[in-house]
Amino acid sequence: MRTDIGNALGGEPALTRDALDELDADVAAAHERIAAGMADDEFGYAALNLPETADPERIRAAVEPFADSEAVLTVGIGGSALGAATLSNALASDIDAYYLDNVDPEHTTRLLDSLDLSRTAVNVVSNSGTTAETLSNFLVVREAMESAGVDWTERTFVTTGPEGNLRNLATKHDLPALDVPAGVPGRFSVLSTVGLAVAAIQGHDIDAVLAGAAAERERLAGSLYDSPAYAYGATTYALAQRGALTNAFMPYAESLETFAEWFAQLWAESLGKDGQGQTPARALGATDQHSQLQLYRAGPRDKLVTLVRPTERADRDIPETDLEGLSYLGGESLGTLLDAEFEATEASLTAADCPNVRLEIDRVDERGLGELLFGMEAACVCYGELADLSTFTQPAVEWGKKAARGLLGGGEFEEAEAVRGKDRLVVE
Ligand SMILES: O=P(O)(O)OC[C@H]1O[C@H](O)[C@H](O)[C@@H](O)[C@@H]1O
Description:
46% of the residues lie in helices and 14% in strands. The chain has helices spanning 17-39, 50-53, 56-63, 82-90, 105-114, 132-147, 152-155, 165-173, 193-201, 206-218, 228-241, 257-271, 293-298, 334-351, 366-386, 395-407, 414-419, and strands spanning 2-6, 8-9, 12-13, 71-75, 96-100, 120-126, 156-160, 177-179, 246-251, 279-282, 303-310, 356-361. Strand 9 (246-251), helix 12 (257-271) and strand 10 (279-282) form a beta-alpha-beta unit. Helix 12 runs parallel beside helix 15 (366-386). It is found in: Cytoplasm.
C-alpha cells in the first residue's frame, strides 16, 4: 500500500514540515503503545496480530464440507458481515456470496425466495452470539430451509465466540463451528475466521490475503514517514484537528465499493466518541464525480477526500469512432479513462485547497486487499492513540442494542422509555 498526501487546507499547507515532525514524535509514542498491546495480545490490539495468528488451514478444513455449494449465505451484521462482504464483492468467484444483515422482511423474503437452499451453505456469524438481528434472521432462514425440505443442520456452520446462544445452538445440533479469536472486535475481524471463511468457500487464496496484511504489519514502525498505514492514520487525525471532520472515502474501482462500507464502520465505530471522530462518507469513483464531488470541492471546508485505486487492472479498449467530438476517446481504454478521472479529481481538489489522500495498491487481488484492510486497521488504531480514544469500544451502539431489546420486551431499559417521543415535531 502507498499513501500519498495532498496537504492543502484552505490555501495553506495544513501540515507544515515542523507540524509533521511534531506529529511524528506523537506517532512514535503511539507506536510504542500499539506494539506493547500487540505483544501482550491485548483486547483490540490482538487484531493486528491476525496476519500471524490466523489459521488458514483450519478455516479451509472447516468449510471443506460446503465446497459443493453453489452459494454461501452469511447471516451476520456489522463487523460480522462487512469484512467477508468486502472480500467477496471484490473478488470474482463461481460461488455466489449473499449477506443477510438487515432485518428488512421484504428483502429477506426476496433473497430467500431466490436461493436454492439445498445448494446453499449458511454461515451464521456473531461474536457475542446474542445479536437480535442475526439470531432473528437465522431463525427465519432455518424455517425456510425446513419448509424447502432441507436438513439445515447439514448446510449450516457458525462462527462465534466461546459463549452465547449461537455457541449453544452449535453444540446442541453438532454444527461445525469456527471460533472468533479472543481479543478481536467485530470491525477488526476481517483477517480472522469471521472474514475469511466465505473467501475460503469461494476458493480465494486466503494465504495471500494474510501475506498482504503481514507485509503491511512489518512496516509498522515508530515513524509516519516509514509506514503508509501510520501516515494515513496520523495525517487524517491531524487534518481532523484542523477541521477536516468528514472523510469521503472514494475508491476508483467498482470492486471496492463494499470496502468503503467496511471502512465506514471501522472509522465511525472506532473513532466516534468523546466528541471526537471523523465522519466517513462513502463514495465511488468515477460515478460520484458526477454527484458528490461538487460538495467535496465547493461545500463547507470540513472535509478530506481519500482516493483509492489499484495501479493495475484488467483493461478494456474503447472502440475507435468517427463520431464528431469523440475521436479523443477512440483507441483509449476504460482503464485509462478511469485513471484520468482519478488524476483529474485529485487535481481539482488540490486546486481548491481541499486536502486529499491517495491510497494505492498494485491490484485488487487477495494480496492487495490484505494490504489495504490491514493498512486501514492500523491507521485507525494509530488515529485512536493520537486522539486518546478507546478505539475498541462502542458504547453508543450498545445503548441502541439494549434499547431495542428493552422495547421488544427482552429486558428493561428505562432510559429508552424515558426519552421516547421527547422533543419531536410531528407534521401530518
Ligand atoms: O458479532 P456480533 O456480536 O453479532 O456483533 C455484530 C455487531 O454488533 C454491534 O453493532 C457492534 O457494535 C459491531 O461492532 C458488531 O460488529
